[in-house]
Structures are given as C-alpha cells and as structure tokens.
Write a structure and sequence with these properties.
- 34% of the residues are buried.
- The chain is 34% helix and 10% strand.
- The longest helix is centred in the N-terminal third of the chain and has 24 residues, at 10-33.
- The chain has a domain at 60-228.
- It is α/β, with parallel strands linked by helices.
- The chain is built from eight helices and six strands; from the N terminus they run αβααβαβββααβαα.
- The structure holds zinc ion.
- Residues 44, 46-47, 49, 54, 56 line the site of zinc ion.
Length: 253
C-alpha cells in the first residue's frame, strides 16, 4: 500500500481519481498540444508501459521469506503509473490478482491457507500491529490491497474473510518519492514504497528490499521528464516552491 495507509481522505481520493482520468485522457491531450500523429506505441509485455518508458531493466529479483499477495482494484490496474505490478515482478513468488469481490475466490482462499505462513492484512486501523515496533513472529502471508483508500475499504468490508484477518500497519519512515501522484498527506506512500518498508521490517533487514525503489525512481523520473517534454505539466504535479532545506527541495527543480 499504502495508498491505503492513511485514514479516509476525500481530497486524496479525488486527486487519485483525477490522476487516473488524466492518465486515460492523456493521448487526447497530447494530440491537442502536439500535431504529431499519435500512433499506437509498442508496449512492453511485462510492465505494460510503452517501450520508451519500460522500467523492466531496473528490476532486480528479490527473494522473500514473506509470501506477498496483492489484491488489486480494477481501476488501479488502469493507472499506468501504478506500482503494484513493479513489486509483483521484482519480489520472487509475489502474486498480483485483479478483482473487486474477493470472498470465495481461489486467490483469497489460497492466500489464507498456508499453515507455514499465516495471513496478515496490511491495513491501518484499530488493532493493527505496527510492523516497525511489533512485527509478527515467523514468516507470514502479507495480503496487500492495491487501490485508493475508499476502494480498499470497500473491498475489505465486502469480504468477511479479508475483514477478519489480523492487521498490520506501518509508519512511513521517510517522505514518499511518488511525485507523480501527488500525496496530500506526508505519510502517504506508494504500494512499492510501502512494501520496501514493511517487508524490511517483517524480515528484519531494512535494506533488503530497497532495490525495489530503483525501477520506481526510474519510473517517476521518466514520467516527469516526459511531462516536461510535453510542457503540459498538470497543475497537480507542477513543482511547488518549497522552503530551502525542506526534505524534497531541489528534487523537482
Ligand atoms: Zn517493461
């Protein structure tokens, strides 16, 4: 997550919807701005990004003791700059499933049926154990919901099995670098950033999953670069003046 890390935030959810819409409408926008023909761009079959934006070469496979099962909301699947796929490709054995209703599905049944790795749901709220201070002992199956906060809440509410899983949460140790998906809360991070931290905490090695950030940073940089080339920076990603010395000062310049 965790776009589902933060408690309900209508402003963020609106921004998410807006970005997803902007992504879908991007080709039309480009045509207006540039007269060049917008031919269908060849896509990478692995990351599904256009070949020019493919980040697969930055992926280093990482072995994990934790079994990672990502349940992705269908709308999130359409977000070109989503990061769940990146995590699923890099973490060995990770699963990425797409759907809305999970109760009774094979994906969920399988996720909660591994006696050697009992399931926990990465989801904030009352009763959630902070993986940083109180990690579960022994390997677990980490069930991750990939979607906006409202989508994630709905998906969990609609599945008694998901709703009854023990929960773990985390406190983001550093500001997100998800500069292309404007985060209205300081503790909001992308799914892949959340996994870097949570898996590091679960497996007792804070650095073990940091290579996941290489394709993530490459994607963010590439996306911003493309936007600069098009000179149609949407308002919600336009670099803001930050006070000197603020954590990200200079990064967006
Ligand atoms: Zn690729």
């Amino acid at each position: 997550m965790s776009r589902v890390r933060a408690p309900g935030n209508p402003i963020r959810d609106r921004l998410m919807e807006r970005l997803a819409r902007a992504e879908r409408e991007a080709p039309a926008t480009r045509r207006k701005v540039s007269p060049r023909p917008d031919v269908a761009r060849p896509r990478c079959g692995r990351c599904r990004r256009p070949q020019s934006a493919c980040w697969c070469r930055f992926i280093t496979p990482i072995a994990a003791r934790t079994r990672v099962v990502i349940l992705q909301h269908p709308r999130e699947h359409d977000v070109a700059i989503g990061t769940a796929r990146m995590a699923a490709l890099a973490i060995e054995g990770a699963e990425l499933h797409l759907g809305l209703a999970w109760e009774g599905t094979e994906a969920l049944r399988s996720a909660v049926s591994d006696p050697a790795r009992p399931p926990v749901l990465l989801f904030p709220g009352d009763g959630a154990r902070d993986v940083g201070t109180d990690p579960p002992q022994g390997p677990v199956t980490l069930v991750v919901i990939d979607g906006t906060w409202s989508q994630a809440k709905r998906m969990v509410r609609q599945s008694p099995t998901l709703a009854s899983l023990p929960r773990v949460s985390f406190v983001a140790p550093r500001p997100s670098n998800y500069r292309i998906r404007k985060e209205p809360r300081a503790d909001y991070v992308s799914t892949v950033e959340a996994l870097v931290y949570v898996l590091g905490a679960l497996e007792g090695d804070a650095d073990a999953f940091r290579p996941l950030l290489v394709p993530f940073d490459a994607m963010v940089d590439g996306h911003l670069e493309k936007q600069r080339e098009r000179a149609v920076l949407p308002r919600y990603v336009r670099p803001r003046k930050r006070p000197a010395g603020s954590p990200r000062a200079g990064r967006d310049a």
